[in-house]
């Protein structure tokens, strides 16, 4: 009873996405980078049945040097141009997309919020009604979301299910390996990119992806170069 429902997640996600679009420089739909992100998102979603995707997805690109991407509860997904500039192949972008969509599908924010609500009730004596009313505030959602660090279990699940989505969408999962290697290289000698800051060790993620590729009986297509 502490976990926000799917309807609440979608309501919050839409409200928070509207706040992001007000505060950030979101590129117009006519921009080739936006069209690319939307096309990759649709291709990943095409691997699900209607029953498997009760969420309302949207795909936006923010003009910023920040190396980041995130998905809000219920389906809104945002990419920063700073991250897109790191990609040579569409398969790398698809790896991030599949990872973020998994956070939505598996309700990782809602489960993290559930745990936070439980802690608030236990430690501060808050009423359940008060906790839920707080959850329904989009500004609070943005503040808590940006500071949230998903559990290691959530991140590993997003990597694993994301890999399976890549394969199902007929992308080359080497794109996931390249993604992790690129981001690992970007973090050398300084602060890790935002996308990696709360994630499992990149070396382990690279090894895990390579192991899954080696064990897969499927033949993968060639990597698709991005041409913008």
Topology:
Layout: H1 6-23, H2 32-45, E1 58-62, E2 69-71, E3 76-80, H3 81-84, H4 90-105, H5 108-124, H6 128-135, H7 138-147, H8 152-168, H9 174-186, H10 202-215
Parallel strand pairs: 1-3
Antiparallel strand pairs: 2-3
Helix pairs in contact: 1-7, 2-4, 4-8, 4-9, 5-6, 9-10
Characterize the structure shown:
The chain is mainly alpha-helical and 228 residues long. The protein has a single domain, classed as Zincin-like (2-Layer Sandwich). Helix content is 57%, strand content 6%. A 3-stranded mixed sheet has the order 1-3-2, sandwiched between helices. A hairpin with a 4-residue loop joins strand 2 and strand 3. Helix 2 crosses helix 4 and helix 4 crosses helix 8. The protein is globular and about 40 Å long. The N and C termini lie far apart (47 Å). About 7% of the residues have low confidence.
Q: What is the count of β-strands?
A: 3
Q: Strand order, biggest sheet?
A: 1-3-2
CATH class: Alpha Beta
Task: Tell me the domain tally.
Answer: 1
Radius of gyration, CA atoms, in whole angstroms: 18 Å
Shape: globular
Largest sheet: 3 strands, mixed
Weakly predicted, low-confidence segments: 121-136
The CATH topology label is: Zincin-like
What percent strand?
Answer: 5-15%
Distance between the termini: 47 Å
Structural class of the secondary elements?
Answer: mainly alpha
Annotation field: number of helices: 10
